[in-house]
């Protein structure tokens, strides 16, 4: 826009200046045409003239001709020419300049011509009644200079205008977009809330000043508030139905405990009845008992998970994980004598082979000088974590597998790593290892009575204690590390 205005106004100014110059040129040409040829009368040019009197064109030496005027007078094939310089003196024209002037069409109308060192000129050529050619010209230098100055001023004004428009525009846009920034900040805060689990409070809302339906930004703010309201409502409904399902599982598990205990009790009673039972009945009663035991374990696991899901408060005992590990490894050794069980405690200076019972007994004596591996939590649940991990290392690996249990404390955290050099966790399970009912191929752990709840319970207990559990992806075999905050 600024460029168009500039070009149009410059062209208009140039047209007007050229028009003005042309009027002056016509007047100068008229004066030249009316000038008598004084050279024949023996007149002399002014003292400052570079021209001899007989070379001075008559149209130059007349009152009214200004600096920059050029004149050519051709009479009987003889040309006389010259121009008035800026000091008012008469000067000669070069042959090339004269030739250029002679080439102008003698139609009495202004034409443009380049005269070498003299620059651009507007010239009028006319033929007198005597047949003489008179060419008069005026320099366009002043007009060109005026146009150039005008263009420079115009460019400076346009640049300043554009700069000002940019600065003011930016300020206005920023001010107008500030409410949008606030709406975006609300959306960002909501996006950072943990919405995927548990009870969800969604207190974030766009401020009422940014929800004015009269503005576009206000409409966005109001729409976001409506969306947040609906999401909050949906999350609350989801949470309620989850709670109901959890409560149902907890109640069902709890209710199943008593009849299961009765089944086990009656099965045992039948086995101990006086008199011999037929062998098939003895086998059937044995199966009833073992299946009832398996179901009891499953029901206990489900009840525990339902309670952990419900966020039931855990015990806050001071639990020494090193002592727990000693007991858990000793039990694992008793249950799986075909495996090699190693125990590495803080400050013990290396792994102890639990095959040597004395080593484990000595451990109590060393406990006093060991760095503390004490955490705050629920004694039974933490023991269950170690038991589940060690039982996996026993059940899901072949005989002869070495299982190393390492306990470490660094003041802020206590870690327990249970690593075996068995076949490793099946690749298909890795992404969902801690989900409920995730279990591998039953053929690999025959007779294990596996339910796939062991690691889900480990994960839930560790998380409820503010800790983490990780699988080492580079380990040979299987290595799981539990990290818990150390007791203050
Ligand atoms: N040390 C291990 N070596 C090889 N595979 C393992 C090991 N630990 C776990 N797994 C695999 O991960 C699966 C899930 O383990 P998880 O303890 O959750 O269930 P489970 O042992 O099958 O059953 P549960 O522990 O409830 O009796 C197992 O079925 C097994 O395939
Ligand atoms: Mg298990």
UniProtKB/TrEMBL annotation:
Biased composition (Basic and acidic residues): 31-40
Feature: compositional bias, Acidic residues: 353-366
Catalytic activity: ATP + protein L-histidine = ADP + protein N-phospho-L-histidine
Catalytic class of the enzyme: transferase
The keyword Transmembrane helix appears for this protein: yes
This protein's GO CC annotations: plasma membrane
Keyword Transferase: yes
Name by which UniProt lists this protein: histidine kinase
């Amino acid at each position: 826009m600024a460029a168009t205005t500039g070009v149009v106004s410059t062209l208009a100014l140039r047209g007007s200046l050229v028009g003005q110059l042309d009027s002056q040129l016509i007047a100068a040409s008229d004066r030249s045409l009316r000038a008598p040829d004084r050279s024949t009368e023996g007149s002399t040019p002014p003292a400052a003239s570079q021209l001899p009197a007989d070379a001075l064109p008559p149209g130059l030496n007349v009152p009214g001709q200004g600096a920059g005027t050029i004149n050519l007078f051709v009479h009987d094939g003889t040309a006389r020419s010259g121009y008035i310089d800026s000091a008012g003196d008469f000067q000669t024209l070069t042959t090339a300049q004269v030739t250029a002037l002679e080439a102008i069409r003698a139609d009495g109308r202004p034409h443009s011509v380049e005269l070498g060192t003299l620059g651009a000129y507007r010239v009028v050529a006319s033929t007198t009644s005597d047949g003489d050619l008179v060419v008069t010209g005026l320099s366009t230098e002043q007009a060109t200079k005026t146009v150039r100055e005008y263009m420079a001023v115009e460019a400076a004004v346009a640049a300043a205008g554009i700069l000002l428009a940019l600065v003011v525009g930016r300020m206005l846009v920023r001010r107008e977009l500030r409410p949008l920034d606030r709406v975006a900040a609300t959306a960002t805060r909501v996006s950072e809330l943990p919405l995927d689990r548990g009870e969800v409070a969604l207190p974030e809302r766009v401020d009422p000043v940014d929800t004015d339906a009269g503005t576009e930004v206000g409409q966005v703010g109001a729409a976001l508030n409506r969306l947040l309201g609906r999401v909050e409502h949906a999350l609350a409904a989801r949470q309620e139905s989850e709670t109901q399902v959890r409560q149902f599982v907890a109640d069902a598990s709890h209710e199943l405990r008593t009849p299961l205990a009765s089944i086990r009790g009656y099965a045992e009673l039948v086995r101990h009845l006086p008199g011999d039972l037929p062998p098939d009945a003895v086998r059937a009663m044995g199966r009833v008992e073992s299946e009832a035991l398996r179901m009891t374990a499953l029901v206990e696991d489900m009840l525990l998970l339902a309670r952990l899901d419900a966020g039931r408060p855990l015990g806050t005992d001071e639990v020494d994980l090193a002592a727990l590990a000693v007991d858990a490894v000793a039990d694992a050794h008793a249950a799986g004598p075909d495996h090699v069980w190693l125990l590495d405690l803080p400050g013990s200076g290396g792994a102890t082979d639990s095959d040597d019972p004395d080593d484990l007994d000595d451990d109590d004596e060393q406990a006093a000088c060991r760095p503390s591996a004490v955490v705050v939590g629920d004694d039974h649940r933490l023991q269950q974590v170690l038991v589940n991990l060690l039982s996996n290392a026993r059940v899901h690996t072949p005989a002869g597998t070495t299982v190393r249990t390492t306990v470490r404390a660094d003041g802020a955290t206590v870690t327990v790593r249970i690593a075996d050099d068995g076949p490793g966790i099946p690749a298909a399970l890795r992404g969902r290892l801690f989900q409920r009912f995730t279990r591998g191929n039953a053929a690999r752990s025959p007779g294990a009575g596996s339910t796939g709840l062991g690691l889900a319970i480990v994960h839930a207990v560790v998380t409820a204690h503010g800790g983490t559990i990780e699988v080492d992806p580079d380990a040979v075999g299987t290595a799981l590390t539990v990290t818990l905050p150390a007791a203050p």
